[in-house]
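seq:
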Amino acid sequence: MPQPALSPSPDAASGAPGPTAAELLAFVRRAAADKELVASLPRDPEGRTWVRLEGPGGSEAWLIGWPPGTGTGWHDHDESLGAFATAEGELTEHSLAVRLPSSGWRTLELADGVDRTRRLGTGEARAFGRHHVHEVLNESATGHAVSVHAYFPPLPLMRRFSRSGAVLRLEQVERPEDWQ
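struct:
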């Protein structure tokens, strides 16, 4: 499986290099270990909560609370590099080891062997490259989870997908104004 790019990414606004995937990963690990920051997150027993953070080098960062049984659904982060760390609890990430076309499709049939699953407990983290398709879940029936996420460049859009077996369908394209 390809590793996230570790070379600087140009900051679209200034032309200056932005943080690498490794720098995003270091940031989310530090933030997830900050007990005071994690404790400051409002928690809702029924829905995810989030607080925007100041990420490194102009990146977009979020502290997110996950009640039992919640998740993101299948999505990608377009051209952004990303990283996330579990600060409390355990999260499960299902991902696809395949690059999807950036446009011109509504439905794709996935080949066998593209599914990946990772479980990230408290203190565990991962980085990912551009066009990473995944869903993140708190599969616990009783425990809340908290995580820190960072993306560079800041998310220009997110594509949301539905999945039925090997069929992946593009359902929606969200822009920053939809989630901020």
